[in-house]
Amino acid sequence: MDALRARAQLRRRYLFSPDAEASLDREGYARPGASTAVEKKQKPLPRLNIHSGFWILASIVVTYYVDFFKTIKENFHTSSWFLLGGALLLVSLSIAVYCILYLEWYRGVEDYDVKYPTLIPITTAAFIVAGICFNVALWPVWSFFTPLLLFTQFMGVVMLISLLG
Q1: What is the torsional sign of CA 157, 159, 163, 164?
Q2: What is the rounded CA–CA span in Å between residue 123 and residue 113?
Q3: CB within 8 Å of 50: residues ≥ 6 apart
Q4: Distance (Å, rounded) from C-alpha 14 to C-alpha 157?
Q5: 36-81: per-residue pLDDT in tens?
Q6: Are 57 and 164 spatial neighbours (Cβ–Cβ below 8 Å)?
Q7: pLDDT at residue number 30
Q8: Contacts of 74 (CB under 8 A, 6+ apart)
Q9: Cα(98)–Cα(95) distance, integer angstroms
Q10: Alpha-carbon distance 133 to 148, whole Å?
Q11: What is the CB neighbour count within 10 angstroms for residue 96?
Q12: pLDDT score at 156
């Protein structure tokens, strides 16, 4: 009787449903061939959700209200940091397009991060260094707002890319 009372106390403590013990024998051990966890195939989350929509919309608003493209066009030739950041951004986006369009859509490789493990770290490093270069290049324009504005743009681009893959 103590085992049943202890089991009921554990069930209450950890909020186990009574069905979780359905595959146990009298001693509390799992029967051969019985699974204690119910495996359900989970439905994937929708690609466009409130979170991604917010960042994409915030990126559009920031682009419009700070005249982002006009500022970029005016400061394009003034800093080599901007050119280096643009080159690294192009590298990271090229790798992302390669992974999403070619590997996943065309070749059908779903786990390209397992098959090609160096692609994700290279893309991440290039994107981080590009962000630092853009912050250095655009600091004279927006001062301490530069990291906030560029982070908003970064999140908008990432969420936009996530809609593709």
Answers
A1: positive
A2: 12
A3: none
A4: 41
A5: 444 556 777 677 889 889 999 999 999 999 998 898 888 877 789 9
A6: no
A7: 53
A8: none
A9: 5
A10: 14
A11: 21
A12: 93
5: burial class by Cβ within 10 Å (0-12, 13-18, 19+)?
exposed
Q: What is the 3-state secondary structure (H, E, C) of the chain?
A: CHHHHHHHHHHHHHCCCHHHHCCECCCCCECCCCCCCCCCCCCCCCCCCHHHHHHHHHHHHHHHHCCHHHHHHHHCCCCHHHHHHHHHHHHHHHHHHHHHHHHHHHCCCCCHHHHCCCHHHHHHHHHHHHHHHHHHHHHHHHHHHHHHHHHHHHHHHHHHHHHHC
Q: Specify the pLDDT at position 109.
A: 86
Ranges of residues in the chain whose predicted pLDDT is under 50: 34, 36-38
Q: Which two tokens stand for residue 139?
A: 């600091």
pLDDT for the residue numbered 112: 84
